[in-house]
Each structure stands twice: as C-alpha cells, then as structure tokens.
Amino acid sequence: MSVSWMPGWVTHPGTPFTLRSGAHEWRGERPADWAAIGAGLRAAHEELRRLPVRRIVEAFDVTAERWAKRDFAPRRAVVRDASLVTGMSEETIERALDAEVGNLRAESLLAALTRELGDPEVLDGFRGGTTAVGPRTVLGVFSGNVPGLPARSMVRALLVKSSLIAKVPAKEPHFTAAFLRTLHDVEPVVADAVVATYWDRDDEATMDAALAEADAVVAYGGDRACAAIRAKVRPDQFYEEHAHKLSFGLVSAEYANRCGPAEVARRIAADCSDFDQHACLSPQVYLVQAEHARAVAQYLADAMRLAARDCPPGKAGEHEAIALGHRRIVAEWRAATRDTSEVWAPDGLEWTVVLDDSLLPLSGAGDRVARIVPVPDLPSAVELMRPYARHLQNVGLGAVGEEFWRTARALAVLGASRVCEPGAMTRPSMSWRHDGQPRIANLVRWADVELHPELATE
Fold it and tell me: What family is it from (predicted)?
C-alpha cells in the first residue's frame, strides 16, 4: 500500500520514491509538477469551503469511529508496518493510535472549535457580524516520533477549510495516507483537499516548490530542522512550529500521602512507558518531595516491570541500544559512588529506574528511563527546571489544593503550556493550546462587519 495520497484530480505522472527499514520497503509517489498541484489544491479548497464545518466534523467523526476499532483492516496494516519502521511494539502503537484517534471524535473537535473560535459556524459565514477564513493551502512538515501525530495538524487545517500539502515522516510514513483513504470513503471533498507525500530533508528543490504553493506552514522537528524551514518562509506566509520540547513531573508530599507511593509510582510508570517515552510530552525526570522519593522509586521498579509486561517496549536499534546502555552505566557508576543514588533495572534494557540527587544528566530521549530526583519542596523543583524553561512543554503535577494552583501558576510563568495529573502526561486533548498557542484560531483571518444597518437583519 502506498505511503502517499494523491487525490483523483492529480492526473500528471509523479516521481516514485521508496522508503526502507531494514529488509522492508514501502513505495509512494511525489508530485513532479508542483504548479499543477497548487492549482488543484486551490480548486479543492473552493470545494471544501462550501461544506458546512459541522459536516467536516462529522466526516472526521465517522472516520475516527472506524479507526478506533483495533480490527479495522487499514489500522492493522498501519500498526504492523509502523512497528517495523519505529521498532515500537504493536501494542505501543495501538495505544498511540487509540489516543490520537480518540481526539478526532465530534465532541472533541467541536469543543476545540468552540474554545478557540467561540462559534464554529463563523467558518461557514458571518455570525454576529464576524466570520473566520482559513488559508487556501497549508504545508505541514510532520515528524514521526509518535504514530498518528500528524492527525492533529492535518485535522486543524481541514477544519478551517484549508487545503493541505502533508510531508509524511520517514520514521512513520503509513498513517497519514491510510487515514486519508478512509476519509475519502466517508467524505471525498475533504480528503481530496490533501496531497500527502515525502521528500528527503536535503531535497531543497522539492521543499521550495511545495513552499511556493502554501499560504501557511506548520513544522514539526528538532530545533535545527525547524530553523531550516523557518529560514525559507516568506514574510506573507503564516508560520507555526513545534520544535524540541522537554517535559517533567513534580510530586508533593501531600499528594504522595493522599495517593500512596505505590499509586504515584504506577502513574509515573504510565508517563514513562507510553510511546516508549519518545513523545515530547513524556517526562525526562520526576522531581519528588524528598521524604517520599525513595519509596516511590522502589515501587516504580515494580510498576515499570508491569507496564513492560502489559505493553512491551520496542526494539532499540544498535546505536540507540549503545546509548541506552551507556546511560545506565553512568547511573550505576553514580549509584556506586554515592549513598543518595540507586538503580533498579532488569538484565535487559526494557526499562530503568534511577534515584539520583542531581537533575543532570537528563536521561535523553526516551526508552523507558524513569529518573526520580528528590527535592525539598515544589518551589525548589520549579527552580531546578528554570534552565530548561525555553523548551518546557508539559508537567505532570502531583499536588493538592492551594499548593497545586500556586505551583501550576509558577510553571505557567516559567514556560509550561500544559499541566496535568501524573499518569495523564501523554494524553492531551484537542482543546489544549498546543505549545501555548490557539492552533485553530491562529490559522484563521477574521473579518468583522460593523457600523452597518444590515447587522440588525443577520
């Protein structure tokens, strides 16, 4: 099955490409005539604009309902292929898709539209003297650290009735095209407003050609990759990026007393195990008030073991396994040289729990390394996070009452854009203002009618 999606109106021949992972390969097609693609997307945009926003929401709802079933054949194929590319277990990918697809139901989409626009139907025409208009064409450059991640920005663009050029991620290229094929079965007008394909990062000619057809750009990736895209964006193009981010967890003594250290550990294990800890929303470190830190770490070892049994970790590549082994050696060396450090781990690299009195070194990107760092109190924890404020995204905050709200405010001032309970770090809703901005409202341009007698007849 192709990893690209070309609407039926694309009639000119494209350029074939092949993506490989070990002995496995998948094929797709890249447009050769981007001017024709741009013209086709502009026409598709006009067709999409005629659909009521609630009909678009309904199309996503029906599509998501089909994809919510784990035995749905296109989903089964995506899970199998994504496991081969990412190395993640099939159960890990199933849970990632459960989370992403669950956000695409009608209730969730309407809640997000209402929160950001007030009245979703301002996208259909004037309501109360105001209307909202999305860009003609959005270019989305997606990353694949979490299977299904492109769905959010793809859906946001289509909800505001923009056509879309989607650059699928090499690390997980299967979901986008497969989802669009189902969407086409439900509502062809919506799916036909998207061209999904792939090009190499160093293929500047294709990137420039795609950019030339876009009015807005949404980019995911590391700081360097996003900077390269940002440098190409024209002044008249709207630009949104989701670059490198870090997330942390905090647990107060009162929260640990209320929940018990075993339950706190179970919630931390969920945060550190979901998506093999590869999401930006996954915690790098949990800062736990000192009197409970060791007990939480001890229980956490059992919780990580159970999480690995229920949802097996993926197979790390050779380089990733070497890096993970080195991280564990460093932790074990620190534990051997100081009384305040300890490591719990199986013989393999399925998971690691580290108790350490220092925030550094950060554990790196994922692979189920749960670090517990004791802190005297939550204000001290916030101060420890200050050097990472520029990249701060998500905080799992275990606190109660006034201490919760005081700490949540301090984290917001520091730079966090999301605060949730431990155990829920990797399950953001569509209503979350992703990285601190209203991602639907930012895409639209507003027009207001004022000082006109026709307002009374609307």
Answer: Belongs to the LuxC family.
